[in-house]
Design a protein that fits this description.
Elements: H1 4-13, E1 18-22, E2 25-28, H2 29-45, E3 53-57, H3 62-73, E4 77-80, H4 87-97, E5 101-104, H5 109-116, E6 124-127, H6 138-143, E7 159-165, E8 173-178, H7 179-189, E9 200-203, H8 210-222, E10 225-228, H9 234-244, E11 248-251, H10 253-261, E12 275-279, H11 285-294, E13 299-306, E14 311-316, H12 327-336, E15 342-343, E16 348-352, E17 365-370, E18 377-378, H13 382-388, E19 389-390, E20 393-402, E21 408-413, E22 418-420, E23 423-425, H14 427-435, E24 440-450, E25 454-463, H15 471-479, E26 490-493, H16 507-514
Helix pairs in contact: 1-2, 1-8, 2-3, 4-5, 10-11
Length: 520
């Protein structure tokens, strides 16, 4: 199914419903669709056609979403770029994706200009907001364009978007996702638009991330009103939820923790919230337990996936977040809070060893997935595509294991796994133990080289500001709760952990800074 149909259907069924709410401005679905058509006409006049790429660099805004749908209307491919990149990274992505038109937010004009001479593909830069720039303004393009309806020809197997993942070696890789990559999930898991049901969805996840794009397409398919926040800021988020009576939210663990820790958290009326979906990074069990207590009646969903899977492939549903029942049932649900749930119906998932064979339940291996949802490949990188997709299965790079009930527990990324004296150690298992310590704000586990053992375990810990804790105390705490070979052998205390925009701890950075060999 072509994703433009989501907008066409919503505009037909609920034309007057508010589609977007952004900094006090509202537009209905029919107004939103008209702007998309005008933008598609303007882009066509700039030479954009089937297969061409259209780039954007900006924080969240309605124009971002309009540009996606306008690109899809022209059978072009949308390329939203991470607004936190450096100039050299931006130049790499521009030359790799080769967009014909590039939409640029005001705070990124100088950076784009600094690399423009070294980028050959872009024929027209467009300023997304009025201000000082040498380029045509977005709104001026729309004002002079036609709103005539267009009918895209791309089918479900055609690429609709390229999302760049962070590169650990070389440059970032552009993940090609098709219309089916999104529609297969949405048609199976999201309720269609209903004129009798109105919901408001607050959007804070960046639109250069797959979770942001999936949230937008799901909201449009369901005819929800999107409350758009440029970037996450906890006080503004709470103000928006309270003022606009948001029903749904997508959060990453660091966002949720910032809300719970905010001094004004209890001064806001957040009772309109009905569903909070979380994911994109591991959720510490103490954080989600606290959230369940602080948001009574809210249904929590843990959605696990990655860019290459078009986001969600496993889910821990709301019922597994309800900590009620017999002591045995509560204990079982508490354990499941540290899982990523079970595979969705339209995805096949296996856990395999280095030879590609299934491992027994309870044994750690690499998570591999198969289904319509998966990426088409990496743009212009056949070697990386062959490495990731083998015999129709996507090798995710995530390690985990199945329990006896089919729930999957992550053990970390394959490259982060620690090998000590022949024993395999999952960083996340040790991190969960440290997170339960009353004086630990957050923690990350890395391996450091060692001549005798191959690797030894080091904990990088952020202590709570009001607490005092020592290296010896944390090591002993872990020794009492883990097998001896899994306990940290050293602890480094830091002010904060390095994270990407969605809250994932950057283990590579930690290894570079704290991964020196342990002596003795």
């Amino acid at each position: 199914m072509n994703t433009t149909e989501f907008l066409t259907i919503a505009s037909a069924i609920v034309p007057d419903r508010v589609a977007t709410i952004f900094e006090g401005q509202r537009q209905s679905y029919v107004e939103f669709q008209e702007r998309v058509m005008r933008l598609a006409d303007a882009m066509a006049s700039l030479g954009v056609g089937p297969g061409d790429r259209v780039g954007t660099i900006h924080v969240n805004c309605p124009q971002h979403i309009e540009a996606y749908f306008a690109s899809a209307m022209l059978d072009a491919i949308y390329v939203p770029m991470n607004y936190r990149v450096r100039a050299d990274e931006l130049m790499y992505m521009l030359n790799n994706a080769g967009p014909k038109v590039m939409f640029v937010g005001p705070r990124y004009v100088d950076m784009v200009q600094s690399v423009a001479e070294d980028v050959e593909s872009v024929e027209q830069y467009v300023a997304l907001e009025a201000g000082e720039s040498p380029w045509p303004c977005y709104e001026d393009l729309l004002a002079s364009a036609s709103a005539e309806e267009r009918f895209p020809q791309a089918d479900g197997d055609d690429s609709t978007i390229i999302l760049f993942t962070s590169g650990t070696t070389g440059g970032p890789k552009g993940v090609m996702l098709t219309h089916n990559s999104f529609s297969s999930y949405i048609l199976s898991n999201v309720s269609p638009v209903d004129p009798e049901v109105e919901e408001r969805n607050i959007l804070t996840v960046p639109l250069h991330h797959v979770a942001g794009i999936q949230a937008v397409l799901s909201a449009v398919y369901s005819g929800r009103s999107l409350i758009i926040q440029r970037q996450f800021e906890p006080k503004e988020w709470m103000d928006l939820v309270q003022r606009e009576r948001a029903n749904r939210a997508m959060m990453v663990p660091t966002m949720l923790k910032q809300l719970l820790d905010h001094p004004e958290f209890h001064q806001h009326d957040l009772s309109s919230l009905e569903v909070i979906t979380y994911g994109a990074a591991p959720m510490p069990v103490p954080v989600i337990r606290r959230a369940i207590q602080e948001f009574p009646g809210v249904r929590f969903i843990n959605a696990f996936g990655q860019t290459e899977t078009a986001s969600t492939i496993t889910m821990l549903p709301p019922e597994d977040h309800v900590l009620e029942g017999s002591p045995e049932e509560v204990e079982r649900k508490l354990k499941r809070l540290s899982s990523i749930g079970r595979p969705l119906d339209d995805v096949e998932i296996r856990i395999v060893n280095d030879s590609g064979n299934d491992v027994p339940g309870g044994e750690t291996g690499e998570i591999v997935a198969r289904g319509e949802r998966l990426m088409k490949g990496y743009w212009g990188n056949e070697a990386a595509t062959r490495e990731a997709v083998r015999n129709g299965w996507l090798y995710t790079g995530d390690l985990g294991y199945f329990d006896e009930d089919g729930y999957i527990y992550l053990s970390g990324r394959a490259k982060d796994f620690i090998k000590r004296g022949g024993e395999m150690i999952a960083p996340e298992e040790v991190e969960q133990v440290l997170h339960a310590h009353h004086a630990v704000e957050e923690a990350a586990i890395i391996g450091v080289p060692d001549e005798q053992w191959g690797e030894r375990i080091r904990a990088v810990v952020v202590a709570k500001s009001e607490q005092q804790v020592t290296e010896e105390e944390l090591i002993e705490y872990c020794r009492e709760r883990l097998a001896s070979f899994k306990r940290p052998e050293s602890v480094v205390f830091v002010g904060e952990l390095p994270r990407n925009p969605l809250g994932k701890v950057l283990k590579r950075v930690l290894r570079e800074e704290y991964g020196q060999t342990i002596k003795g």
